[in-house]
């Protein structure tokens, strides 16, 4: 039995319960297509039974490798883009102290990220920050040729070797890449780096429970065994034989497709805790890359409440009625903080004094839900008992499984991303990459 809870009842009133139940047969067929490997993109189903296939030896290898980096580094730079960094960052941020980088008494290295942009100032400032610091690198790229991480790795490899010597650097670089192909694999073999494999059948956005996510998360000091255990629970709950009523992934997939059919083309993932921001970024990639194709697919957006209630709140309350929300709710905070009394009560808020801050946040959450429903925004809710590795593991797998089913309901291949090549092609043409001569000529004629 899973611990996270999906509530879909606040979508009814906008769509009918009967229509959602009408998806049962289609959802069962989509789930079966995933498990039997008969649907579109079936060569990318390595994530499906991944949690339960992770064995002790693999976890020990992850933990031992993490220990080397933890024991020898003040900072670990995770290099990767898209699916090669978003899962790790989402989980690490959700579990970390919000002011982690300022802590002086550290048990774990600070984890920072590179290769997720081409910002010259970002890279300059990163390299300046790393000067005189003991740092290590986890370089993650399935292809090994993605421009952004390849650039960051070139810069940081040289810096690490210059600062700590080639032999020391070799022990502080871990490569996570394809089993046998690609530039990073070749380099790792040449240089003798410790490596982990991204299996051929696991796409980037479904890779958080592979070494791509697990190693950085372990380096940051979090319990990857619990994360995987939570995912295993959800793998079982959402399995092939799970009944529609007991399968949250099936229900979520059905309800969002019914909402889409009824004109709700934008889904907003909402959180009420700032450390969940990157869960929204991870989720947007998962659903955006999986469903946004063939001129269809729900547009995935995300907001951080209550912050964004003071900006995007207006649009959500009264803008075009094409949206629905999925709220990630955390039932219990990890710490206690009480709303203080003020002697002069100038702000008029003494009626809140003595209450838990989380109670105020929860009433903001409930008040927002009711206001948005009144404003024509269907609301779904995913509730986690609290923020820890286990419940996050459940949630990650839940969203992955629901995404696979949902993509099949939509009729697309949820495991490819042909559209991401377009910008690369133009960028290489503009930068006059050898082999792109015709494209260079064509694009230059357009500008
Ligand atoms: O989900 C995906 O497939 C992408 O986001 C990739 O992970 C991303 O483009 C990085 O690719 P690579 O790991 O080959 O560098």
Task: Provide a short characterization of the protein structure.
With 447 residues, the protein is α/β, with parallel strands linked by helices. It has helices at 17-21, 24-36, 50-53, 56-72, 86-95, 120-130, 147-164, 166-171, 183-191, 211-219, 224-237, 248-261, 277-291, 313-318, 357-374, 389-410, 421-430, 437-444, and strands spanning 5-7, 75-79, 110-114, 135-140, 173-178, 194-198, 266-271, 299-304, 323-332, 379-386.
How would you describe this structure to a colleague?
With 447 residues, the chain is α/β, with parallel strands linked by helices. It has two domains: 226 residues, Rossmann fold (3-Layer(aba) Sandwich); 178 residues, Glucose-6-phosphate isomerase like protein, domain 1 (Rossmann fold, 3-Layer(aba) Sandwich), CATH 3.40.50. Helices cover 47% and strands 13% of the residues. It is built from 18 helices and ten strands. A five-stranded mixed sheet has the order 1-10-9-7-8, with helices on both faces. A five-stranded parallel sheet has the order 3-2-4-5-6, sandwiched between helices. Strand 5, helix 9 and strand 6 form a beta-alpha-beta unit. The protein is globular and about 60 Å long. The protein starts with a strand and ends with a helix. The mean pLDDT is 97. 5-phosphoarabinonic acid (PA5) binds next to loops.
């Amino acid at each position: 039995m899973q611990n996270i809870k999906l509530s879909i009842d606040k979508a009814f009133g906008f769509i009918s319960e009967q229509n959602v139940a009408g998806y049962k047969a289609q959802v069962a067929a989509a789930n079966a297509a995933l498990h039997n490997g008969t649907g579109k993109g079936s060569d990318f189903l390595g994530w499906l039974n991944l949690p339960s296939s992770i064995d002790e030896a693999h976890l020990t290898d992850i933990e031992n490798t993490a220990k080397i980096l933890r024991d020898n580094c003040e900072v670990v730079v995770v290099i990767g883009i898209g699916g090669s960094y978003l899962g790790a960052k989402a989980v690490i941020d959700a579990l970390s102290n919000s002011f982690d980088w300022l802590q002086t008494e550290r048990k774990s290295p600070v984890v920072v990220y590179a290769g997720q942009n081409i910002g010259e100032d970002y890279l300059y400032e990163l390299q300046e920050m790393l000067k005189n610091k003991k740092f290590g690198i986890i370089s993650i790229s399935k292809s090994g040729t993605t421009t952004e991480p390849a650039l960051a790795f070139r810069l940081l490899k040289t810096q690490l070797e210059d600062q700590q010597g080639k032999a020391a650097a070799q022990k502080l670089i871990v490569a996570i890449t394809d089993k046998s192909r690609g530039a990073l694999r070749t380099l790792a073999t040449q240089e003798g780096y410790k490596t982990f494999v991204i299996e051929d059948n696991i796409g980037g956005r479904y890779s958080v429970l592979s070494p791509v996510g697990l190693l950085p998360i372990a380096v940051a000091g979090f319990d990857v065994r619990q994360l995987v255990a939570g995912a295993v629970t959800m793998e079982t709950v959402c399995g092939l034989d799970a009944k529609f009523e007991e399968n949250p992934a099936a229900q979520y997939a059905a309800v969002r497709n019914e909402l889409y059919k009824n004109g709700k083309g934008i889904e907003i993932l909402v959180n009420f805790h700032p450390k969940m921001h990157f869960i929204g970024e991870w989720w947007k990639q998962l659903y955006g890359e999986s469903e946004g194709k063939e001129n269809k697919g729900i547009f995935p957006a995300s907001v951080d409440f209550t912050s964004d209630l003071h900006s995007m709140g207006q649009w959500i309350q009264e803008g075009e009625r094409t949206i629905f929300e999925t709220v990630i709710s955390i039932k219990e905070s990890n710490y206690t903080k009480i709303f203080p009394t003020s002697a002069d009560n100038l702000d008029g808020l003494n009626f809140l004094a003595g209450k838990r801050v989380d109670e105020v946040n929860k009433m903001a959450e409930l008040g927002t839900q009711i206001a948005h429903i009144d404003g024509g925004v269907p609301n779904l809710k995913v509730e986690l008992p609290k923020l820890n590795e286990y419940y996050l593991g459940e949630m990650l797998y839940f969203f992955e499984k629901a995404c696979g089913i949902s993509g099949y309901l939509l009729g697309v291949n949820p495991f490819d991303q042909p559209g991401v090549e377009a910008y690369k092609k133009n960028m290489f043409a503009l930068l006059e990459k050898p082999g792109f001569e015709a494209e260079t000529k064509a694009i230059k004629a357009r500008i």
